[in-house]
Amino acid sequence: MIFLLLRKYQFTLPGELASFLFEFTGKEIPEMREKRRILYSRFNILFMIVFLLFSILILRLGKIQIVKGEEYREESEKTNQTVYSWNTPRGKIYDRNGTVLVENEPIYTLTYADPAGSTQQEKLELAKKLAGMISVDTKNMTERDKKDYWILTRKDKAYAKLSSTEQANLDDNEEYDLILERITDKELKEITGEEMEVLAIKKEMDTDSSSAKRLKSGLTTEERAVLNENLGKLPGVEVKVDSQRDYIYGDTLRQLFGKVGRIPEEEADTYEENGYDLNDLVGTSFLEQYYEKWLQGEKEKTTYIKDGTGEISEVKVDPGESGKDLILTIDLNLQQEAEKIIVEELKKDNGAKSAYVVVTNPKTGEILAIAGKKEMEKDIQDEAYGALYNSYAMGSTVKGATVLTGYETGVISPGDTFLDAPIKLSGTPLKKSYVNMGRINELTALERSSNVYMFHIAMKIGDYDYGARSGFEDPEESYDTFRKYFAQFGLGVETGIDLPTEATGYDGGVQKLGNLMDFAIGQFDTYTPLQLVQYVSTIANDGNRVQPHLMKEIREPNHESGQSGEVLEQFKTNVLNTVDMDLSYIKRVQEGFRLVMNGSHGTAASHFKGAAYHPAGKTGTAQVLDEDGGYNYNLTLVGYAPYEDPEVAISVVVPDVENDTSTINKAIGKRILDAYFDKD
After folding, report:
1. CATH topology of domain 334-543+579-678
2. What is the reported pLDDT for 532?
3. Where is the Penicillin-binding protein dimerisation domain (predicted)?
4. What digits encode the pLDDT tens for the residues 253-280?
């Protein structure tokens, strides 16, 4: 009856009452059946969701364990390991014939690696111990280094410099900066000489580096003995076998090899971007720097793996690989002979104090010898870099470029003649040759080194009418014309040599007509000995200017035989440009250069005429002011041989000679070319 009434009047019973009636009557009302059905459905859906989630979890765990287990294990190990690296020996440097020029000499180095994460105080105590066992250089300690050390070792005095208000309101960095400002010079003088050594060692220990820190290279026998006896008490400290460069032939080419040292501070970011560590040793100049990527080996790596307690449980060592070998284009025998000849000729000639020589293959650009010597306090010292970085007015050696510029601009044609007689311009000293030569063509002008012929070319390029004494309306264009054509031979521009930097000489700018005439005879702009040899090589090579280079090959080292192994890279001949001139013009100048050394009036015939190797070239003398207001002379020579098929080119520069009658430039050039052709 109750159920009928409820259904009739559509009453809904609360859940508790429905359950009570079910228990009381033993019958289930419809509302109860519907709720039970919904509840079962929800349970089924929930069960399916839980089942699916559990299945996904099982699959993910399986993937982690089976597919990526090794990857995650390695990643986990990374967080429990510390890697320190160490430079391996650099590649050796050889001459073109396989003679070792630079190798590595073993030395002992004290290193520090901190796999356990020591505190500053622990490092300080370790540095104190080491300072009692080794001596170190302290001259590079800065004022900031000293202040940091003063604060670390005198904390009470340091923080006494702060008021209670400052200590309450400033953060740690602000406090430290304020203390730094308040340390006096008198307080810094408290640091003793012994403490300075502790400071020097501590500074190296604090280097931000993943490499083992070099605390001292070149340990003495006594220092090694003391350290080895106490290594067990010196956590993180090792005595390692390191290497330093050994120059087999002393000063020969040493300047051009360059130096190896710490990464320069201003280049730190660049090196770090290329995977270097700030503690690495790298090439810092010349060949060592330019070929750093080859000479630098793959570093030795030591991995310290820690267990769950932070203790080192395993050490792994990857020995790395030494650097690749650099084979130079240099012929050691010719190089040594060139250096010997320069020294001997400087000793003979009291008026000459320095000399520079570059010898190349004009067709390939290979530098066979590059030498420089300078007298300093009665001792003649090596100055090979002067051939690259010292620039001089080269005098008449550049007259070949002047004649070719005249041809190409159309102001002269082959065979044109001018009267070699003094030229007088208003406001300019008399301009003349060393002797009046009469009417001559350009070949005789080159053979006898006529200044006046070149002056006429300059005046025509400047659009100056000497007879009417008028013209030269656009000086800038005149100078630009000369420099444009001279640059095609390598004069006044970079030669492209495989070194980090080179000099390009001095550009005198735009001046008067008289200065333009001086330009035409090599007494205005200045050039380097390397530019000079590229210039004559371009003429010898029918107008093809090739890049000069010192690298012949890069090879794998062969540790078993001690010789270099497989060729990894070769320097291919690189033609920088071909002179924009008719080949017949260049042939004409080649003939003029042949007459210089073989003609009856050739300025170099006294030294070269009759030489079996058939040389060609040009001499030069440039008048330059000395320190006292008088004049000295730059004596120069360019040449190549054989004239018919050149295989060698040379430039000789002897600057600031006290008299212009010296023939030291010709003597040096002749003897070196003789040595080259006698080498076989």
Report:
1. Beta-lactamase (3.40.710)
2. 99
3. 88-315
4. 999 999 999 899 899 999 999 989 888 8
